[in-house]
Amino acid sequence: MLKRLPFDLGYYLPGVFFAGKPSRRYDDVSLSATVYVIQQGSECGIIDAGVGMHRFRMLVRFLAAQRVTPSWIVLTHDHYDHTGNASALQDRYGCPVLMHAADKPLAEQPLRAFDDDWMLGVRGATLRDAYTQMNRSEEEYLSEQRSVARDRYHPVAVDGTLEDGDVIEVGDMQLEVVHSPGHSPGSLSMYLPACGAIFAGDLPMWLGPARPHPLGHYADWLQSLNRLVALEVRVLGWGHAVPTVGHRRCRRFLENTRDRVRRMEAEIVGALNRGKCTTEEVADSLTIDADDPFVRRLLEDSVHTILHTMREEGTVKISRRGEDICWRAS
Ligand SMILES: [Zn+2]
C-alpha cells in the first residue's frame, strides 16, 4: 500500500521509496525526474538521479534519515533530467553508476548528439538531419546545442553497463533489467518481481517517443511498451509522476498511452492522405492539444519519429516542396 512519507519527500511502498514530486514546469532546468530508492535493511539502490540542488539535498537528507548508503545508481536513460545528479551522488557515496551501453556515450558526453560524424557512425543519422527534416532552422539547431552546453550539461562517468536480462540486487531483493528502447536507444526499465514494481524511466510518457529520430525510435517504443503491458505490473514508477498502483490501473495507464500514440499514428496517415506534408503541417492537423511551446516541440519530435518509422517501413518517403522538406505517402 502506498503511504505518504512523514516529511515532504513523497510516498513509499515497503522497501521502495519515491523521492520528490514531479515538476509542473517541463521547460526549465529545475525539471527533475523522479528518483526511486529501493531499500532493504541498510542497503539501497537508486534508480535515476534527478537534477538540481533541491532534488540532490532532498535525496541526501532522505538517505541519512533512513541510515542507508546506496550500493549502485542505475540511470534509466541518458537525458539530463535523469542523469544530472549522478556524478555528485557517485562522488558522495562512492557507488557505481550503471546504465545501458547504448546510452552511455551521450551520458558521458552530451554534446556528442551534435557531432555529425559520431552520430552518423553510431546512430546512422544525425540530429542535424532531423532538424532539417522538421524544417527547423540552423539557428534553432545551434540554439539547442548551446542550451545543452549551458543548461543541460551534466556529464557522468559510467562505471558499468547493464543488458536485458541482467539482475542486480539490494539485500536479497532482485531487480531485473528490461531493455526498453524507443525514448532513447538504451532506455531501461527496472523490474522488481517480488512486488510487481517496474521503474520505466520516460517510456510510458504521453506523446510517445518524444524525441526525433535518431534520438528516439517509434517502432522500438511500441515494442517496449507492449512488453511492459505483458508483464505483471502492480506498481508503475516512471520519470515524471507519482507511481501508479494496482495491476488494473497500471495496465490501463500503459495501454492508454500506447493507444493514444497509435491514434496519433493513424491521424498522421490521414493527414498525409489529405495532402499535409511538412512535419509542422502534420502536427497542426492532429487532434492533440499542444498550445504550450514545449509540448508542441515534443509533439513535433514524436511526429518526426513516427514518420521516420513509416519511412523505414517504406510507406512514406521524403520529398521537397520548394524550400520545405515534405513527407509523402509512397
Ligand atoms: Zn527522457
How would you describe this structure to a colleague?
The protein is 38% helix and 21% strand. It is α+β, with helices and mostly antiparallel strands. The chain has one domain (3-313): Metallo-beta-lactamase, Chain A, CATH 3.60.15.10. The strands form three sheets. Strands 1-2-3-4-5-6-7-8 form an eight-stranded mixed sheet. Strands 9-10-11-12-13-14 form a six-stranded mixed sheet, covered by helices on one side. Helix 8 (218-230) packs antiparallel against helix 9. The longest helix is centred in the last third of the chain and has 27 residues, at 247-273. It is globular and about 65 Å long. Zinc ion is lined by residues 77, 79, 183, 202.
Give a brief outline of the structure:
With 330 residues, this protein is an alpha+beta fold. It has eleven helices and 16 strands. It has a single domain (3-313), classed as Ribonuclease Z/Hydroxyacylglutathione hydrolase-like (Metallo-beta-lactamase, Chain A, 4-Layer Sandwich), CATH 3.60.15.10.
Number of domains: 1
Q: CATH topology, what is it called?
A: Metallo-beta-lactamase, Chain A
The assigned CATH architecture is 4-Layer Sandwich
Strand content: 15-25%
| Unique bound compounds | zinc ion
**Overall pLDDT score:** 90
Which series of helices and strands comes N to C? Answer: EEEEEHEHHEHHHHEEEEEHEEHHHEE
For the sheet with most strands, the description reads: 8 strands, mixed
Please report the total strand number as a whole number: 16
The low-confidence runs, each spanning 5 or more residues with pLDDT under 50, are: 4-10, 22-30
N-to-C span: 52 Å
Number of helices: 11
Neighbour order of strands in the largest sheet? 1-2-3-4-5-6-7-8
Q: What is the radius of gyration computed over CA atoms, rounded to a whole number of angstroms?
A: 20 Å
Structural class, by secondary structure, is: alpha+beta
CATH class: Alpha Beta
The general outline is globular
